[in-house]
Amino acid sequence: MGVKRIYQKLKPTSRCVMGKTYFVSMTSGSCDCTEADFEWYRKVVSNNCTAGVSVEYTARRHQCPIQAPKGLHLVTSEGTLTATLGTNATFLVFLEEGDGAKTSITLDFGDGHALTYSNVSSIEDGIKHIYKAVGIYRVTATGENSLGSETVTLYLHVTCPLEFIHLSAPFVAVRNKEVNLTAVLWPSQVGTVTYVWWIGNNTEQPVITLEGSVACTFSREGISTVTVQVSAGNTILQDRKSIAVHEYFRSHLLAFSSNLDDHNPDVAEWRLDVSRVIRNSLIQVKPPRATGVGEDQLLVTVLPGLPTAAEFFLLPDKLLTEGKAEKTSAHLDQLSEVLLGALNQNLVQFTLRPGVQVTVYAAHLSAAPLVDTSKSHSGSAMLMLLSVVVMGLAVFVIYKFKRKIPGLNVYAQMQNEKEQEMTSPVNPTEGTAGSQRDTVHSLEILDTELNSRPREVKWSGHGVNDS
């Protein structure tokens, strides 16, 4: 269709026969297009016409009008709002409406770094960025051309894998007294973290916090269990501690010979084993005239870190003290003195391994401060301290300027008179009168000489020096 063919054929009146070598020639060519060759401004399928009216029906390219960017989108390549610290985070930016070739894209990663691209097509493979710190970052993408701009925001949570948690809690607590529970994370900064606490007997309704510390009280004596779960990203870790709750107890810090630090790997299992060994060593201390420490009355825990330190807790024996406060306190004081006496005499030792003998000591705390910081005595303590300072200043002034105080001269005169009386000649009257005149005369000469002597005043950074 749309093609014309030209060929030769015999006339109807010819009676000849075509020979074997005769070839019928035929030529083909395109026809000029007419309106019949088009349907709704489109050439009919399989139509091969050319020229004619084809120019009028052929589509023409026109420059589209520039539009302001509209429908800007910003997502991560994985479709999530999280990224791992130290790895590539890939961002995808695309535009629904607008001239992508003439619309520039600026991507601000929220950590002080930003990139600008001349058009959208140049970032089809995504934009990669590595974050160097955990946190929540406000990532913004801005598309802009001569007719306007559009901005879209994404909040990205950059996290670090949580490796280990440790629940820091007291081993012994006083009943109805507030204690602090703290969950220690490693590494310390892992991003957004949720803490779930099960405290004591409240195992059905946990406490959910965003902080790693909570305060609580225990109303019942006995062993209470605290469990904490830490959720960071796709990781959930848990730790649990048991706390002995009592009305009264005694505690004291322990120190060790320096050779223990050489064998301390600072791991929880090692601390637990050494705590048991120390506890057994303390239980073996038998006072001559007192009841020894029972197995249920003594708790020992080795503290994390170096140098190695520990703490022991003495718990009351309610069968022996009949639950009375006076007997309980006296009994605990008695046991505490027995153990401290044995520790101070280097009687508590244990063998860590063959050839390694460790001695346990009572840690000596620093002395109490001079000023009482309690509210009820702070005023009197400060008054006492102020009195000491004033007295010291008064002594300094008297010592520095004693030559100008008449009372001291009179006292010196009286002392000289007494000395003259003790060394007087046989005739007391003549000796006394002469000595008085000589003393008075010499004192007057001394005062006159001191007053007439020039005084040198020196200035230094610490004040005035009078000499």
Keywords:
467 residues; alpha+beta; Immunoglobulin-like; five-stranded mixed sheet; 27 strands; 23% helix; elongated; disordered C terminus; VPS10-sortilin; VPS10 domain-containing receptor SorCS3; transmembrane
Write structural notes for this entry.
The chain has 467 residues and is of the alpha+beta class. It folds into 5 domains: 3-57, no CATH class; 70-159, Immunoglobulins (Immunoglobulin-like, Sandwich); 166-246, Immunoglobulin-like (Sandwich), CATH 2.60.40.10; 250-362; 404-453. Helix content is 23%, strand content 36%. The protein is built from 7 helices and 27 strands. The protein has helices spanning 54-57, 268-283, 318-321, 325-344, 378-400, 406-422, 428-452; strands at residues 3-7, 26-30, 38-39, 42-43, 70-76, 82-84, 88-97, 104-108, 114-117, 127-130, 135-145, 148-159, 164-168, 172-174, 179-186, 194-199, 202-209, 213-216, 222-232, 235-246, 250-256, 298-303, 309-314, 349-353, 356-362, 457-460, 463-466. α6 runs antiparallel to α7 (428-452). The longest helix has 25 residues, at 428-452. It comes from Liparis tanakae. Keywords: Membrane, Receptor, Transmembrane, Transmembrane helix. Residues 419-441 are annotated as: Disordered.
